[in-house]
Amino acid sequence: MLKLLLVDDHELIRAGLKQLLHTTLGNIMIGEARTAEEALLLLDRQPWDMTITDITLPGRSGLDLLTEFKTLRPSMPVLVLSVLSEDEVAVRVLKAGAAGFVHKETSGDELVKAVRKVLAGGKYVSPSLAEKLALQVAMPQTDEPHKKLSDREYVVMTMLASGTTLTQIGKILSLSIKTISTYRSRILQKMQLDNNAELTRYALKHGLVQ
């Protein structure tokens, strides 16, 4: 039996996905997690054929979770589903090891197409993203400041922009406040910003946080 793991903190989203997947894929087993921590517990209990995860989760982000997944289960494909801008997030999650990216406004048929392609061992990107990636290769562009961040810096940046304190970030990521403070300084320097308020405005403008 096919086993799929859904990771999303919104119950209605998970319910809709479950109904869609059961209807289109037939007799399958679906596990549900609201947070990265719950997802990792389920991952430890049994093998999964595929994971579908949001990128914006309470606590540890979906990007951080993706890194954990690829370390613990490198052969398990991960499809990222998000409301965040495809332009800003898709390339980063693909580079981090995701098998595909689907925007939450995508039709159900397209989502199922993405799931089937990933389960078959392929990679999925939308036609519009594929075109943008091709244009980037043909016409290299100057990277925006946030694209200079490492994956860990990117995670810390989104948490800071969402109003999470240094202490809270340290607990979530199991890092010292001093380390998080160093990340913050490095992030502000790379992005040429002066404080958290400017960081939040930048992140909202570019669709990096909700």
* Main beta-sheet strand count, sense and barrel state: 5 strands, parallel
The helix count comes to 10
Q: Note poorly predicted spans.
A: none
Helix vs. strand class: alpha/beta
Structure, described:
This protein has about 210 residues and is an alpha/beta fold. It has 2 domains: about 140 residues, Rossmann fold, CATH 3.40.50.2300; about 60 residues, Arc Repressor Mutant, subunit A, CATH 1.10.10.10. About 55% of the residues lie in helices and about 10% in strands. Strands 2-1-3-4-5 form a 5-stranded parallel β-sheet, with helices on both faces. Strand 4, helix 4 and strand 5 form a beta-alpha-beta unit. Helix 2 runs parallel beside helix 3 and helix 7 packs across helix 9. The longest helix has 15 residues. The radius of gyration is 17 Å and the shape is globular. The chain starts with a strand and ends in a 5-residue tail after the last helix.
Short description:
The chain has 210 residues and is an alpha/beta fold. The protein is built from ten helices and five strands.
Q: Which key phrases capture this entry?
A:
210 residues, alpha/beta, Rossmann fold, Arc Repressor Mutant, subunit A, 2 domains
What's the helix and strand layout?
Layout: E1 2-7, H1 11-25, E2 28-33, H2 36-45, E3 50-53, H3 62-72, E4 78-82, H4 86-95, E5 100-103, H5 108-119, H6 127-138, H7 151-161, H8 166-173, H9 177-191, H10 196-205
Parallel strand pairs: 1-2, 1-3, 3-4, 4-5
Helix pairs in contact: 2-3, 7-9, 7-10, 8-9
